[in-house]
Please model this.
Amino acid sequence: MKRHGLLGLDIGTSGCKGLLVSLEGRVLGAQSAEHPLLVPRPGWAEQEPEVWWEASVAVLKRLAEQAEEQKIEILALGLTGQMHGAVFLDSLGNPIRPALLWNDGRTAGECREIEERVGPQRLREIAGNPALTGFQAPKILWLRKNEPEAYARVRHLLLPKDFIRYRLTGGFATDASDAAGTLLLDLARRDYSPEILGALEIPPEWLPSVHEGPQITGYVSPEAARRTGLPAGLPVAAGGGDNAAAAVGSGVVREGTASVSVGTSGVIFAPSDRLRLDPEGALHAFCHAVPGKYHLMGVVLSAGGSLRWYRDTLAGEEVAAAQGAGRDPYEVLMDQAGPIPAGAEGLYFLPYLAGERTPHLDPQARGGWVGLSLAHRKGHLVRAILEGVAFALKDSLVRITALGIQPEALRTVGGGMRSPLWRAIVAATLEAPLQGLEVEEGPAFGAALLAGVGVEVYPDVDEAVAKAVRLKPETTFPDPRLAQTYQELYRQYIRLYPALKESGVFRVHPK
Model:
């Protein structure tokens, strides 16, 4: 007798991840495939869409095999992935060039142009956000200005996960949460803004149709079925941007709940029953993947990315030792940081290695340690990174609470939050309990649940979460003494960025 299951596929920055999930929320299969990041120039970040597709094919094929082995009938597939990227396709649906990613910082000039054309206040009123280098809209203007021959060939414009949807179904569609990160969406209407499109001279026919997260947007084609092993005609749900889908997978769907994620980037995510806008545009306001709902989001561009940079650049000895002992190199780094006292004996770290989003909105910001002395060792450097990321996350939570959302606890997502040390630091810094989840693969898990709503396995997203999302029994509560220490240190930390910016050290130096 066959059981039923759902699939979720996440097109991430470092790789593609897929889950096979039971209707009760149990993970029955998990697969992943890495794909490289291309950095042709400092501050640029690109990937080949065809590499995403090949990784997706490999992951889906293995999941289809796992479903067959377990006699599971797959009912639907949900998609999620990195937000903001620009995938430019020609009239035949082929990529014209590598996709420009969310962490690409080349478009500062185009952001200024967007603000001038639309008006900064009007842009925030419609799209909920100021023009930032990571968003999709400035990438379009960059291509028009810098690669006119490529721009002349553009006929379709997609977000990363929606390129995979196109390859699976042949249709051009997206969801409201991901589309909200293009800077082209009217958040209140949950559809594209004719005013913004007109001001930027972007043809609306290039854009995919916008749907709510659970909506079915197409069906797996016979050709895609042959490549992936999925059944032809399998429903494919709209899904969500990675953070919105992760929130669904974490049960963060109602106002008063919130999550903290530490992956490559760091995110504070807080749902809202209504559209709330930060008056300075320092917090992102987006549509949620839950129909009719919204969320506020603060983003640290280099959270786990800062620790990964340290590992790859400065921790060669530790990596070698870990490999020799069969350990994860990050565990060795945490062992070094653990005995170091809070505050790393006067050492601070600014995690602005790729510029920064919340709250500084500064692509030219740069990271570094402040307060180094001869007494500091590698453990101090790591401890300062962990604390610096926590302080940067607090920058966002402070603004979220100022807008009237008061989360009582935060659910954790991402590899960084699996570290007991980092969890303790974040809990104390944010002064909030952290709740772990039985299923930690948030985006793909959430995409699977959205697909389940789409095929009426669950009546709505609330019911899907109630049936499928489970918390771990243990909660990380903030240590009161550590929280008091971090309150004092945070007051010093927030003075560093303005002082360094004023000094001119963030200015771009000629090559």
Observations:
- The longest helix spans residues 378-402.
